[in-house]
Design a protein that fits this description.
Length: 126
Amino acid sequence: MFNLNSYLANEHGNEHILEHSLQNKKNFSAPKIYNANGDLSKRWHVYYSFRNPESGKLQRMKNVYGNVNRYTTKEDRLAILSVYRAKLLNLLKEGFNPFEDNTQKYQEREQNKRNLNGSSPKVVGF
């Protein structure tokens, strides 16, 4: 006889195993902005975590400050940090890893930029 409760319990067990396997876990957390609750006397930054290859756990990385704390308005700081966050997220999605040497990835990325810029059609004035 088919027992719905047994089936659901068994399915939940399989989902639980899949949910906790390292292959399904992200290698990084989405970068977040720390704005010190709007306090301009404190240091604002972007923070994120990346999966440590040795421990398999997410590890908090160094805060990204850049030059943001030179700005004296909340709007300016938030605008700059938003750009930092977006650029950092793009780099992480492209496979940049804070635990590895990313020189090769960086050079490939720059070469691709040069190729894209060099292949654009040029407009000649009359």
